[in-house]
């Protein structure tokens, strides 16, 4: 069981990482009032340039430096290029005030076309090969913790960086003057302007920083996952990142949890195909855990806000009871050996997301000034 | 003033991006009349979703078209390709070749089978070659058309040989396989064959096979999925990873290789097409698409073209860099298995518990 849990959750974290980077890009943009639908394109450019940077650096310097240096160079180039693409989005949508959705869509098309073309010209004919991926770096002591150590502290560097970034941004957006300014620009730009905040400059900075983060997400796919650029390799992750951002209510920690749920469901779709777990048992246990979790979160929330509503107390307690009973029952029942169709496993992320959305998330409202270019009155 | 310049820029940008996104050189419209005089045959190739140089299935098909055209001495203006970007465009892409007056249209992939047959029935004068397309009706009963040749392969045999290699070479007794879409019969045959091959030589080995659960637009092009899945195989102790599924499988092969496992490729000799894995690739389950397509194109030219199903061979690629690590005993055993497969003594496509029902096994003659 330990092996299965560790495998499942480390896979979930790896699958969640590019989604988190993408979602953070969306959060930075939208919190300052700029919709960014071009995350997919920025990730793709980031992935392509990260590959080109690392592979060419590796090729030109030969074996003079360690491959890790080439990977770091690739990372820097990927991040910078994605930030440049984001700067294009910023100029189009802030300076020229075009519809931000159109501008993002143009970036997606442009990125798909350019990377395709450039891969045809620069990668395929010369059989340019990658320099590998960042190695796993187990953190001393922490990685020795049973189960959790393997899941959280035996990962590759960009996964750790993602953890740090989520915590840092969560603090920065809600507890620092920088974050306050960003949020005010996204909620009520004219009010922010009257107190002396440069609305457009704030938006430029945020969109470009966001692009750099999307570039990290794209670079992750090349430098920590595949080790090679493959055409259209983002495969829709930029769009799922947008959904993750909304599901996480425009907060970094929320987005992290949402991405983790999504990654977990995807990992489950893979893990159940291994054939060593009873599919029905696994599904029942997971639904029970979600029900239990929803009840527990509800209970904690009503305790925190000191709600005296007896109805919500009854609902939450019965959810917890139901979840616990199902868990016990699942242990006792002998489930028939039945394989769930693979198509259904592919739907799991979406089904679990809907389940969690209905249970956990109250109405999700984005920043008020989102999508509207700022004009001084 | 400012705005005007901007709009020009924007329109130019949008136009460039659309051009680049559809960067497949569309069949040259107009102005081709002069060259047409020199074309005794015009050949169009429509790829499955993905890219013409995917180092795998589409690339082999296009190479076959080129080989056939060169065998006929055609000028390069007489044959061209369209890369399908979205499965919704299959019919549009095929029809655009028909409207340009192409005589032979090659389409690749099971998913395009019914569309190809539909367009073929509407255009009886045009010859069609469908790769991985069994000539069957909706109920999977044989239903050949005169102008469509379906080029199919015994993927189960190739998969069986790959599985036997994996089963004989594994030290940890855990082998994995990453596959594309489970509803594509060719992929399903690879998987079922692989499973049977491992079990035949090594009944104690545990086999972890994973299909990409997505739709046709994703399951062959999601290399990060393949990579992550291979990583989880390694964590389970697998030391041989087989990949059959375009770019998805390529991701798996590269990651498995980086993690020190041996890998087995598919469709083409991937030692030659995927440089990242050249030091850990054992072999590839090849199907000779190139010869198959090229032969059919020559047949289309000299009037010996026949509609209905034809079957091409599926075999293993050379061991290349790992040749010295494969014991002679294993090599002779593999030759023995290949002989038994060709005589029908072994059924590579035999169903097992929870085996994929989409295999549609081809009987060995």
Overall description:
- The complex is a heterodimer of chains A (377) and B (365).
- Chain A has 377 residues and is an all-alpha fold.
- Chain A has two domains: 2-268, ABC transporter involved in vitamin B12 uptake, BtuC; 276-338.
- Chain A has helices spanning 2-31, 39-61, 67-95, 100-123, 148-152, 157-175, 177-187, 189-194, 199-226, 237-247, 252-271, 279-304, 310-332, 342-360.
- Chain A is globular and about 60 Å long.
- Chain A starts with a helix and ends in a 17-residue tail after the last helix.
- Chain B has 365 residues and is α/β, with parallel strands linked by helices.
- Chain B is built from twelve helices and twelve strands.
- Chain B has two domains: 34-153 and 288-313, Rossmann fold (3-Layer(aba) Sandwich); 155-286 and 327-343, Rossmann fold.
- In chain B, the strands form two sheets. Chain B has a six-stranded parallel β-sheet, sandwiched between helices. A six-stranded mixed β-sheet of chain B has the order 7-6-8-9-10-12, with helices on both faces.
- At the A-B interface, helix 1, helix 4, helix 9, helix 11 and helix 14 of A face helix 1, strand 7, helix 8 and helix 9 of B.
How helix-rich are the residues of chain B, as a percent range? Answer: 40-55%
The first-to-last residue Cα distance of chain A is 63 Å
Strand content of chain B: 15-25%
CATH architecture of the largest domain in chain B, by name, is: 3-Layer(aba) Sandwich
- For the terminal residues of chain B, how far apart are their CA atoms? 75 Å
Which segments of chain A are poorly predicted (pLDDT under 50) over 5 or more consecutive residues?
Answer: none
The H/E string of chain B reads HHEHEHEHEEHEHEHEHEHEHEEH
């Amino acid at each position: 069981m330990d092996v299965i849990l560790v495998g499942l959750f480390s896979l979930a974290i790896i699958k969640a990482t590019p989604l988190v980077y993408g979602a953070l890009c969306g959060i930075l943009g939208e919190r300052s009032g700029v919709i960014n639908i071009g995350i997919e394109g920025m990730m793709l450019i980031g992935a392509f340039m990260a590959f080109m940077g690392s592979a060419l650096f590796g090729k030109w310097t030969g074996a003079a430096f360690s491959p890790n240096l080439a990977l770091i160079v690739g990372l820097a180039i990927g991040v910078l290029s994605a930030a440049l693409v984001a700067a294009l989005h910023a100029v189009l949508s802030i300076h020229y005030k075009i519809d931000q959705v159109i501008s993002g869509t143009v970036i997606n098309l442009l990125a798909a076309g350019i990377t395709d073309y450039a891969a045809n010209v620069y990668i395929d004919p010369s059989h340019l090969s990658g320099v590998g991926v960042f190695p796993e770096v187990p953190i001393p002591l922490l990685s020795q913790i049973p189960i959790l150590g393997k899941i959280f502290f035996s990962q590759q560097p960009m996964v750790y960086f993602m953890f740090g970034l989520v915590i840092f941004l969560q603090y920065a957006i809600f507890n620092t003057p920088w974050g306050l300014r960003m949020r005010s620009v996204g909620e009520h730009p004219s009010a922010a302007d009257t107190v002396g905040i440069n609305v457009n400059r704030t938006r430029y900075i945020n969109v470009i920083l966001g692009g750099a983060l999307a570039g990290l997400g794209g670079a992750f796919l090349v430098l920590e996952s595949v080790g090679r650029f493959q055409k259209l390799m983002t495969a829709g992750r930029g769009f799922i990142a947008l959904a993750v951002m909304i599901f996480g209510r425009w907060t970094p920690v929320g987005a992290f949890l949402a991405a983790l749920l999504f990654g977990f469901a995807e990992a489950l779709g893979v893990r159940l195909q291994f054939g060593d777990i009873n599919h029905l048992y696994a599904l029942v246990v997971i639904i029970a855990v979600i029900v239990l979790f929803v009840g527990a979160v509800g209970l904690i929330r009503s305790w925190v806000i000191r709600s005296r509503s007896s109805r919500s107390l009854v609902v939450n307690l019965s959810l917890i009871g139901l979840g616990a009973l199902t868990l016990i029952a699942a242990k006792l029942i002998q489930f028939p050996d039945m394989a769930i169709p693979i198509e259904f496993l592919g739907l799991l992320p979406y089904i679990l997301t809907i389940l969690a959305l209905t249970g956990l998330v109250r109405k999700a409202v984005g920043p008020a000034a989102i999508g509207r270019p700022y004009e001084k009155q | 003033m400012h705005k005007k310049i901007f709009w020009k820029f924007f329109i130019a940008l949008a136009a460039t991006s659309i051009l680049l996104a559809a960067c497949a050189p569309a069949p040259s419209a107009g102005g081709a009349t002069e060259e047409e005089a020199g074309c005794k045959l015009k050949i169009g190739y429509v790829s499955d979703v993905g890219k013409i140089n995917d180092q795998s299935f589409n690339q082999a098909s296009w190479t076959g078209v080129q080989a056939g055209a060169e065998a006929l001495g055609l000028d390069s203006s007489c044959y061209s390709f369209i890369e399908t970007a979205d499965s919704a465009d299959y019919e549009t892409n095929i029809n655009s070749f028909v409207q340009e007056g192409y005589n032979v249209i090659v389409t690749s992939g099971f998913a395009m089978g019914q569309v190809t047959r539909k367009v073929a029935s509407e255009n009886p004068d045009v010859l069609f070659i469908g790769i991985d397309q069994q000539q069957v009706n909706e109920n999977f009963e044989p239903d050949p058309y005169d102008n469509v040749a379906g080029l199919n392969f015994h993927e189960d045999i190739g998969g069986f040989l790959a599985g036997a290699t994996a089963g004989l070479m594994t030290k940890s007794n855990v082998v994995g396989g990453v596959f594309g879409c489970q509803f594509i019969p060719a992929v399903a045959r690879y998987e079922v064959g692989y499973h049977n091959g491992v079990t035949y030589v090594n009944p104690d080995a545990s086999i972890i096979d994973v299909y990409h659960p997505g739709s046709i637009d994703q399951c062959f092009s999601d290399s990060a999925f393949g990579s992550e899945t291979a990583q989880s195989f390694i964590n389970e102790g697998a030391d041989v990873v087989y990949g059959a599924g375009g770019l998805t499988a390529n991701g798996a092969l590269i990651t498995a290789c980086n993690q020190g496992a041996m890998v087995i490729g598919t469709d083409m000799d991937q030692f030659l097409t995927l440089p990242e894995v050249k030091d850990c690739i054992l072999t590839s389950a090849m199907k000779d698409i190139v010869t198959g397509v090229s032969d059919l194109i020559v047949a289309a030219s000299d009037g010996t073209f026949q509609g209905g199903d034809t079957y091409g061979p599926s075999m293993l690629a050379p061991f290349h860099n790992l040749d010295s690590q494969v014991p002679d005993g294993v090599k002779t055993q593999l030759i023995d298995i290949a002989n038994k497969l060709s005589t029908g003594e072994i059924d590579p496509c035999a169903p097992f518990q929870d085996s994929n029902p989409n295999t549609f096994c081809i009987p060995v003659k």
